[in-house]
Specification:
The complex is a heterodimer of chains A (116) and B (117). Chain A is built from no helices and eleven strands. Chain A is mainly β and 116 residues long. The termini of chain A are far apart. Chain B is mainly β and 117 residues long. In chain B, strands 2, 5, 6, 10, 11 and 12 form a six-stranded mixed β-sheet that branches. The chains are: A mainly beta (116), B mainly beta (117). At the A-B interface, strand 4, strand 5, strand 9 and strand 10 of A face strand 5, strand 6, strand 10 and strand 11 of B.
């Protein structure tokens, strides 16, 4: 079974702190994603990576950065946490099959981050 | 730009009733993929189905069925004989053709389904 593991289920941080959210997948997937989920807004893409050291901005990258030094690990970084970054953060990965065959994404259990 | 609309924010039905969740999408691509995910109270999104734009056949999997209509840009999801375990938030999602950077999913805002025993 594909497994996407996020390092924390719940996290409470103070305003201005630097926050690291870690995600690891064990199925050798090329693509990895970070989404945030807010009530009434669904899931919104923050950043996307299709290979080691490669990253693409999603729809709401402001205030975030990412790191992908190894294929299995994709980290989301909040440089200076703010209260409006309180949210559920979901990591996902998917396989690239080639020939334009988009595959389904597999999600981690989510990290509920509260910034106080 | 691609967009997914799930107009039904919340639906409640009594157990054993049938229920249909609507999904309307927008895309300029001729090749794209549609997905449905279930998010139970535990929080983890569970993949249900993937459909590409060239395959308009309806699909049935047990009590679940999907109706894909390109003419109306819709990909609706029906649960037959609903059960309490079907209570969850359901998301419809879209991704465009699989070039680098296009494999990201665009999600709708979700429909919260409550099955009343």
């Amino acid at each position: 079974d594909v497994k996407v593991t996020q390092s924390s289920r719940y996290l409470v941080k103070r305003t201005g702190e630097k926050v690291f959210l870690e995600c690891v997948q064990d199925m050798d997937h090329e693509n990895m994603f970070w989404y945030r989920q807010d009530p009434g807004l669904g899931l919104r893409l923050i950043y996307f990576s299709y290979d080691v050291k490669m990253k693409e901005k999603g729809d709401i990258p402001e205030g975030y950065s990412v790191s992908r030094e190894k294929k299995e690990r994709f980290s989301l970084i909040l440089e200076s946490a703010s209260t409006n970054q309180t949210s559920m953060y979901l990591c996902a990965s998917s396989l690239r099959t080639g020939a334009g065959q988009n595959t389904e994404a597999f999600f981690g259990q989510g990290t509920r981050l509260t910034v106080v | 730009a691609q967009k997914v609309t799930q107009a039904q924010t919340e639906i409640s039905v009594v157990e054993k009733e049938d229920v249909t969740l609507d999904c309307v999408y927008e895309t300029r691509d001729t090749t794209y993929y549609l997905f449905w995910y279930k998010q139970p109270p535990s929080g983890e999104l569970v993949f249900l189905i993937r459909r590409n734009s060239f395959d308009e056949q309806n699909e049935i999997s047990g009590r679940y069925s999907w109706n894909f209509q390109k003419s109306t840009s819709s990909f609706n999801f029906t649960i037959t004989a609903s059960q309490v375990v079907d209570s969850a938030v359901y998301f419809c999602a879209l991704s465009e053709s699989g070039n680098f950077g296009n494999e990201k999913l665009t999600f709708g805002t979700g429909t919260r389904l409550t099955i009343i025993p």
